[in-house]
Amino acid sequence: PINVKFLTSYDMSAFGPEVNKSEQIGNSVIFNPDNTVDKSVTTDGSVWIYPNMVSKSAATHKLEQYDDAKGQYYIDWTVTVNAEQLNIAGGTYKDTIGAGLVAPSASEIQVSPAVGNLTMTGDGFQISFPNGAPIRDTVTITYRTYVNNDSLPQGQFTNKADFTAPGYEDFSHTSTVNGVDYLKKTIGYTDYDRITKTFRWNITVNQEK
Questions:
Q1: Tens digits of per-residue pLDDT, 26-62?
Q2: How far apart are CA 34 and CA 32, in angstroms?
């Protein structure tokens, strides 16, 4: 077999006259096994691209940041809205804070630049970008959520980001942080006795202290 690999790039013109939704980019491959007779075979491939309208990330992938004064774990979140610097006037960013997390207050949410109107909701908050003059800023949102101690045994903590705007398709991104590893159990093979057919269990409780 012969493997052919190459890299292609695209610019914003790939989205057409208006950048507001995902687009499919195609590529055709033609192979002719005979130099004199046309026996060519064509295969088409495609990939979906989308404008980077919203992304969310946590400072760590595992629950490990701890506030000694509060006696609680916490997660620092960073959200980027409109990395492509398109016009987001009239759009809305919505942040849905998952189960087990304590939502921040409005004063604890940092928005830069402050181009939208922040309001708190029952399960998080949202930022509305006013209609009118174009808003092409890339907006960064940072905040901290504390973890409810009663929820520590759950395996994962999630946080969802949504962006909607007139004329745009809906964009969404969910970020996940793994929980605390309270219980770990392994077989201690060094204590295995073939005569008595016994072995020892090694159990660690509250590994994260």
A1: 777 777 777 777 767 777 776 655 577 899 999 988 8
A2: 6
